[in-house]
Amino acid sequence: MLRTLLRISFKNIVSRKSSAVIVAFISFAVALLSVTNAVFDSTEKGVRESFSASFTGDVVVRPKSFVSLSLFGDETPITGEFTSIPILERFSEIEERARNMRFFSSCVPQLSGRVLMEFFPDGGNAARFPVHLFGVEFARYFSVMDSLSVVEGALPASGEKGIAISDSVAAKFGCGVGDIVQFSVADGFSFRIRAVPVVAVYSYPSAGGESVLSKIALVDDGTLRELLAVGAGTEPSDAGSPQEDENAGDAFDFETIFDGAEDFFVEESSEEDVPPVEMQQEESEIPEIDGGTWHFLVIKLSDSSKASSAIANLNSFFRHNGISAEAVGWRQAAGSTAFYLYILRLVLNAGIIIILVAGLIVVNNTLVVNVLDRTREIGTMRAIGASRNYIRAECFFETGMLASSAGVFGLVLGTLICALVNSAGISFENDFLIQLFGSGSLVTEISAGTAFYSFAFAFFLGAVAWIHPSAVVLRIRLVDAMTSAK
């Protein structure tokens, strides 16, 4: 019986010219879907590998907050820059738990803050630009972020002050090792200011001049603690509170700290260039800072595919122990850049699905017309004893064969398109595109997962298109079918 059904279904498909139109449409849709997802698969892989090895790691533990915190802080437009990042509570417990996880490789704590960076070249105008400062332990950070390479200078020893800048920042503003840069952070109606030397220039993989990576600078954690007033006695604050933190003010008496060093305290801004402040020479002048307070813990795993399991493990530990922290993946840690890529993928896939739904209506109507044209044939089959289920099964096999063959042709077409794209050697010079695609060239490859889902979608399309025609067939009365057969 099955063999007979397949033979009849195949005969009906071949005998109708409209079958070619249906197969062509579904094939085109499957090819479009597979190529689009192949591009985004390679893009996401490139961005993930670049970001994970450069600054996000595989898992990031962040303070729990009512705003979504990335490693850059609160990226909410307009209001985000006025919020502060709370510190991680019970940091030692969090780090110990992370180290005891399966697939743990390494970790590094981090502070983060937005500051205004100023460079005063000899005989030139001051260069001022905002940067995201990551306060880190240099040796430990560069061992975890193994894609970073020092191209000039050397990393400072533990306890030494200094800043490491990316090669794109060094080239853009003309600063290098040995130059003094100055940071300023708003503190109410005044500013906190620090100056440190550039000790190293490093490079990121696939980072253009205007990419998010080029806006990162690495500084010793002690300097950033002083700038952000993160130290002993500082209580965690809720994200979304003003940058001027009352608890931090209670912990530090700024008037006492800067007695005899007014150059560090600017009461009002000036349009004229202000020369850099002198670096502190005496260790006794620097307030005692608590080195156990951090904003984030960045974790690398020996197997990055186990990130979801590690995140679930850590979050379960936090819930059961009442720790106000949460573990997230690289996408949430990277912030808006990775989020935009994800949204772009969703939008394009939604557009393709809308096209397919519109095409589904056309396919459905075509199949209904074909069924009505076969009323005589159906009447004959019903007259010689064919059951309703037999007729329904014949319609299902027809649409299933159409969808399956279209899915195969679509995947073949998509593979050919990807091969043509790869052979064309499409490269990018725009910094945003380099950052978006994770590399300087476009490389596409249809993965097994993409092929499976594309084929499954084609078959689903055929199954949906089968429902209405089969219902139309079964509504035809046997008397009407026999009358048509005369």
From TrEMBL:
**Which keywords describe this protein according to UniProt?**
Cell membrane, Membrane, Transmembrane, Transmembrane helix
Instruction: Return the InterPro entries for the record.
Output: ABC3_permease_C (IPR003838), Lipoprotein-release_system (IPR051447), MacB_PCD (IPR025857)
The UniProt transmembrane annotation reads: 339-372, 406-426, 446-467
Per UniProt, what is the membrane topology?
Multi-pass membrane protein
Entry's Gene Ontology cellular component terms: plasma membrane protein complex
Q: Please give a single GO biological process term from the UniProt record.
A: lipoprotein localization to outer membrane
Where mainly located? membrane
Please state every residue range assigned to the domain named MacB-like periplasmic core.
Answer: 19-209
Q: Where in the cell is it found?
A: Cell membrane
ABC3 transporter permease C-terminal domain boundaries: 352-475
Membership in a protein family = Belongs to the ABC-4 integral membrane protein family. LolC/E subfamily.
Name of the protein described by the UniProt record? ABC3 transporter permease protein domain-containing protein
